[in-house]
Amino acid sequence: APAPHRLNSGLPVNIGVLFVPQQEAWVVERMGNHLILPFSQGLNFLIPLLDRIRYVQSLKEIVINVPEQSAVTLDNVTLQIDGVLYLRVMDPYKASYGVEDPEYAVTQLAQTTMRSELGKLSLDRERESLNANIVDAINQASDCWGIRCLRYEIKDIHVPPRVKESMQMQVEAERRKRATVLESEGTRESAINVAEGQKQAQILASEAEKAEQINKAAGEANAMLVKARAKAEAIQLLAAALAQQ
């Protein structure tokens, strides 16, 4: 079904003096075929009977629900997918005369583009890339309509039950794989830490033994020096005593 129209109300009647509300653009026709540029916001003057307000375009951001549709991915999986389209009128003149119903045209373009882009991607591909591709494709086609697609968001993706079960099994297998990898990495880190601890303990033990031997050798050397000094002093005293006699 066509998307809802952007008109906030019926077309205004030309009474000569008109006030264009904020975030709106009015397209005026003179004598049926002569076009006047979209009227700016605020106070405007028209010629009664000759000028007719033909279109009222809203310049606000427009939200359109893209109906659910089926699409086939690159790996031959049929999906039911819908989304939300955010638009804005950039050129009121093109939006009025470029296409009969811009919103309906953009909605149909979004649906066909969605099917086309899904056919290029596998089921495991991220939806962000799909959204960006749809926005780029819509903007390339809707430029002549004076409408720019700001963003496209996928609301729901319905996957067949069997595919959903296989995806769930794949997710569980991936989780078990990550758990096994983490457990093995933990065991490896634990073994490395134990080995590092043993190595440090051996190094500290050898350094302690070395320091003990050095201290023991130094003590023995000092003891020998003390004994030698004592003997030397005893000999000197004995020699002095003999010299006196």
Automatic annotation (TrEMBL):
Gene3D superfamilies: Band 7 domain. InterPro entries: Band7/mec-2_domain, Band_7, Band_7/SPFH_dom_sf, Stomatin_HflK_fam. It is found in: Mitochondrion inner membrane. SMART domains: PHB. It comes from the Eukaryota. Its main location: mitochondrion. PANTHER family: STOMATIN-LIKE PROTEIN 2, MITOCHONDRIAL (PTHR43327:SF10). This is Stomatin-like protein 2, mitochondrial.
